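[step 3/7] fold_predict: job queued, chain A
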Amino acid sequence: MRKTYLTAALALLSLTGVAGAQKPRVVIATGGIGGVYYYYGTVMAEILSKHAGVDATAIQTAASVDNILLVTEKSDPSRNTYYCGLILPESGLLAYTGQLDRFKDKPATKLRTLFATYPNYLQIVTTKGAGTVLQNLAGKRISLGAPGSGTEIEANLVLQAAKIPLTKFSKVERLGANESAQALADGTIDAYFWSGGLPTGSIAELSQTLARKGKQIDFIAVPQKGPIAGAFEKAFPGLADVRTLDKKVYGSARSVQTLAFWNSFSCSSEMPADLAYNITKATFEHLPELTASVQSAKDTTVANALRLSTSKVPYHEGALKFFKK
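[step 4/7] structure written:
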């Protein structure tokens, strides 16, 4: 009998040891299909599963705000489960400081940056002849991006800076990347906002679709010396700059200046330092696997990784350990 109990006890200890040795589970919150977040996060999950000693998966979301909520509220050390996510820096800052409505009562103070990834270009997509400045869109039908997304936040901030109320538009939709592109192709909207890397797949496909219909894709400009760029620099110093969206990227009617923001790959402060270190290390030691699949990832480099250090959102100590080695 005692031998039976001993055997059972040893078996239980064995099972407990196996459970205790289970890999950490890392869930990467991305964005909608058709945007760079989705593809970047999917490849990141493959890299981390192979090289970081974790069981990583990527999930589709509505992007930045959803991702912040998942990272800060769903990470669970007791289950060895941690969420990471791609996040626009101004969304992260506003959530961290409680300036977004969804974080007013509970600021996202657990949010931590692992590294800057690549610049998101604010792409205000339209067709040739629709106008060259935001004011030309008054009276037209627009989409601001998916509800709760970083794109929607940026769109509203841009319109506020330009002093254009939503009442100036004949219709205001809140559609994701693919849905907005389809709506413009179908003629049910005249323009839409999108914040994403270059090239964004859904916009590239839209350009081809419009060309087949005898139309040409175009973009609204946000000039370096204009009031919108100035307002963003004042509100988010160091987080945004003005870059050129070259007409060669999508075969558009012209090159335009627009805002660009460095995305962050973020996690929770509850993530152990060694895990944050391993994730960061695996990423930067296997960048060719990322850049081979995601063109925007060419800007994910050690030299660019600390670009968000001017933000109030702190870097995770585990990531800083890697960069300071």
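[step 5/7] annotate
The chain has two domains: 24-119+263-323, 121-261.
The two ends are 56 Å apart (CA to CA).
exit 0
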